[in-house]
Design goal:
Layout lengths: L1 E4 L5 E4 L3 H14 L12 E4 L10 E2 L7
Parallel strand pairs: 2-3
Antiparallel strand pairs: 1-2, 3-4
Amino acid sequence: MNATINADGTMVITAETELEAYALGQWSLASCLDLDPNLWRPKLIVDCSKYPAAIQPLRVPGATQQ
């Protein structure tokens, strides 16, 4: 798993193996998709694009990738 922080403060988490993609996919479903839009949201991008069966890349509104 690779985690980087862009200049704007956005954390990008990228899966490097199928197991990591599965784990990130499950975490994303459990943790991120039900965020209340009225609450503060982290600047976070979970990228499983190398393993599309795990989950579609998730982008929290307000996050940008450079």
